[in-house]
Amino acid sequence: MRKIFTLFTALMISASMFSTDWDSIEWLGDGAGDGAYANKYKVAVAFGQNVINIQKPGFAAETGIYTTFPAAISSCSLEAGKYVIEGAGMVLYLSAFTAKETAVAVTAGNVDYSFKVYYADGTGDVTPDPEPGTDPDPDPEGLTPATYYGTASVLVSGEPCAFEWSITRNANSTLTFEITWAADIVGAVPQICLEGTFTTMPASGKKALYTTSATYTDGATLNNTFFYIAYAGGVARVDITGYTVGASNEKPDTTAIESVGAATKAYKTIIDGQVVILKNGKRYNALGTEIK
Fold first, then answer.
1. What is the reported pTM?
2. Most CB contacts within 10 A, which of 64, 151, 215, 274?
């Protein structure tokens, strides 16, 4: 059952469970040459995913949507023969899309990505947006998310680089790790070493985000856990110290409300792998800018 949480809580749902504001997303460029696919396709991308355009590279048997991910791709939910993988890039053949809206899941590295493709001439309807101002379920379920914050200055290419990081204990007892850095890091490939196991984190710009599938009970202490950022010419390690799940130094997650003002209810969620804030029937990004 979908869980919706008010004020200091978060809603964690997949791309296939929430409607997409397609009017706010640009049409894909037609790189196939003749303009036949212009104004036909859109992609609601996952966090860390990069969509280029519609094209037919040499390794592809058909024209399709060319997209890349931060690590080598190992699987795709589309029917076999409807896509081709080339390392961290892939082409999703246009013949795979016959519906107005299609959900796609891709695994790259150790990360699962969920995104949606819109086809203007497709069959069926898109999932309608909820009515503006409609209050969600007033009876929250699960824990109140709380966040542990940290900062560090680490040498990158011989120069100090400022990092900010956080660990959020979510309402469903999973953990979300987030790290941002102040300077440009050429070729950055961020990973989280979680109790000795390395996992690539989806990254966008100077930020990386990862949510565990495993759950953690209060009192669990994370040992041998740190952020590990490989880059052109070296690596940077940002240690996570002193974190115990449910510890008193966790703070209520108020980012969503502070970002857009606390005049009315605000809800922080992840839609298509990106942090989105819902308030008064409108959507905002994590910086408080309205998403049109």
1. 0.55
2. 64
